[in-house]
């Protein structure tokens, strides 16, 4: 009889732990803090999880109060009684109780430059693990910047002609890319809660053309990684463009004194795979800006070379210190459904 009471208590405690995980997930979803841990495309799975946790928790608590032996035991032929010491049980249950209590009682901490220093920064999208193949036509590479400086209007006119030619080719080949019959490759949830779909190659080509024809490129939260990817794929096309970007200040050890990266953490699936993305920047006669300070920076885009890789380089003309955004993370390639 004593063993049955002991086992009933353990079943009850397991039910409480399951209810605790339910409350933790419920809190994160209601407050919107769930996107500090997982990407928007993973949020629908959390709805299923809280339903399962609630049902299992209620069943366990109900079973613990049953006086019917057949309901308390599963009759699988295995002895479910706790034969270990009380200390062993406390240690095992603490493994499950600790994340519940810390999640419910403590505030959420944002990843910062200390994490960025360990993971390294990606100058471009997650598609790049190595520099892209460099153009071997040195005469073309070295003359682009000089052409812009000599005659900016003629340079931009040539760019427009090139865009029209590339956009026609991109639209013709876009249907061959990955995606569903309606041109989508998956559904997700935007940071404002609206329905979104993952960008197709056609979407990215349209975005590229919009950026090239705009007077000012604003790197917004919803298309942060998509815009950075375009800038890093074609840095020479955007020479002379005005860029505005929001992020935290991160400095590599080998940077010059006036150089830093305006960066954000990009989340693909969950916070464990978060990587740092940003643009190398510089500013003259700057006020003292510490690492992890959030800023809104704007300036003119040029290029620089790092490890034989041509990268966009932002010459900041205006920088403003700001508070950390409500959601400091950015996510992969989402665009509103049309």
TrEMBL record:
Q: Which NCBIfam families match?
A: TIGR03943 family putative permease subunit
* Region annotation (Disordered) ranges: 166-195
The record's section on Pfam families has: DUF1980 (PF09323), DUF1980_C (PF21537)
Where would you find the membrane-spanning parts of this chain? 12-30, 42-62, 90-111
Residue ranges occupied by any DUF1980 domain in the UniProt entry: 13-121, 201-332
Question: This protein's superkingdom?
Answer: Bacteria
- Compositional bias of type Polar residues: which residue ranges? 181-193
Record key words, sorted: Membrane, Transmembrane, Transmembrane helix
Q: Does the keyword Transmembrane helix apply?
A: yes
What is the recorded name of this protein?
A: TIGR03943 family protein
